[in-house]
Amino acid sequence: MHLITSSHSDRQLPQHRIPSRIVTSIPQQSVIYPGHCPRSHKHVQSTTGQGTATLATVDVKPRKTYYGDYHDPNRTVGLRIANGGAGQAGLIGAWADSFINYMVKKKQFEPFAVKWYLGDTTESIAFLENKVVDVAVTYNEAAERQLYEIGLLSAWVYGFRDHFYLVGPRSNPAALDKSENILSMIKKIVRTGNEHSVQPPVDKPPTRFLSRYDKSATNIKESELFIKIGQVPWAYAYSKWYHQYPRFPIQALEAASLLHEYTLSDRGIWLSSSAEVQSRLEIYKQGQDTPGDEEEDILLNPAHVLVAQEENILNKSIGKAFVVWVQLYDAENREGGQWVVEHFTGFAQTGETKEPLYTRAPSNWSPYK
Q: InterPro entries, alphabetically (predicted)?
């Protein structure tokens, strides 16, 4: 059996997850096996019963700082926001710049800075609990409700709608039919993955599924899909076609494209990825908005804005103002968080017609039920 030495450990691990003919297509340090995580770790205890969250930033440092139209590295920090995919796609930065400009020009505040901390849903919640950030933009209502029920939030509002995508290799070894529902597709991935583990096809790559395996909202959603069909491929003895790859979403999508694997991603990340990555993948199923405020599609990915208790917010006035602004849609003046969402097309699209990455929040959603 061929062995690969991971750059993250001196352990030698069997190359049973990735076909040898394509393992050289990505850097060796990107080949991840069970129990190996390439993200830098800092452990912070969660008080919501979710255990110890693994925070993917060294010493919990912000990934980027925004200043609006008033760039000055010496600006006082007015707000700290944690988020994963929308931060990587650039929406959090667009929100930050627009909010700063609004507060200075419309509310006569002194210019300030907004810091963005990179973290998936579980990590962002832990950041909020441990007073590292004032705001967490997250994607799992059950986890968010725990914070609300134990009194750790001063506000909980709908931020925007993202949409999960099931994508995979154009060779389509699982023979997915786009007219099928998502659960039928997952069943096919499981069935053909098991078959190809025993006897790989000779004319195309075998069926494999790349999981971020990191407690992110995407990882939770994919787990939900597998459980709905009675499967737990991550359980011992784990399924050989189930590839655990704990990276952030843009990196995970690129890996899936190089390794010819199916994976669950989202619209924001897809439209923020390069044309080269997209050219190697096919979208087999995508989440859709439903009429009105109903959220019936299992692939809809709602993003909610959680704001810490007032005593834990860096600047209470700015924190309160952000809650109001993020729900504002002012088309006439092109202002408000919802206006930014509706018009944000990211930075990766190169065509004349650019698609918005996200859709606006429903008008009458309430978590207080």
A: ABC-Tungstate_binding (IPR052738), PBP_domain (IPR024370)
